[in-house]
């Protein structure tokens, strides 16, 4: 009991949460997250929170989430036999869907806004053969560090989003490389600007 009290006091003293009520909730969320991860064979780092209502399933695949991440209510991380790897300090907001078929790698400090779908796989589309019976083509997706993905974005198989990129809401990244520090938007996503240092 005393250890729990000391933990809450430590949390408050570091300014992580402003009140005892929030501290208790945060402590519960940390405990729930550890239990959830253990039950479903997911690896999570220190301080990572999986909110109630999120769904994370690795099946025969692998899911690793770094430290101090938050997976919000309604988010879905589904490995489907592939691999999802997420770095530290990543936020996956409500109603995001992240698949792992062909391998999904997300760096650290990434913000993924609500309703985003990331799909590292695609169907073959040979004529004369039912789509549902055709094989998947999987090239994978890699997202670097310090990336902001706006609401409702679609990132499709074969895409590489380099570090520092900002993706405008509703955009579709259809493959290829999005260069470092680019600002992109549209369908398909095109470069519309670039992030510049604060002193310029």
TrEMBL record:
Gene3D superfamilies: Hexapeptide repeat proteins
Domain of life, per lineage: Bacteria
InterPro entries: Hexapep, Trans_hexapeptide_repeat, Trimer_LpxA-like_sf
A Gene Ontology molecular function term of the record: transferase activity
Residues in coiled coil: none
Pfam families assigned: Hexapep
Keyword Transferase (UniProt): yes
Keyword terms of this UniProt record: Transferase
Similarity section: Belongs to the transferase hexapeptide repeat family.
PANTHER family named among the record's database cross-references: ACETYLTRANSFERASE (PTHR43300), ACETYLTRANSFERASE RV3034C-RELATED (PTHR43300:SF11)
Record's protein name: Acetyltransferase-like isoleucine patch superfamily enzyme
Species assigned in the record: Mesorhizobium tianshanense
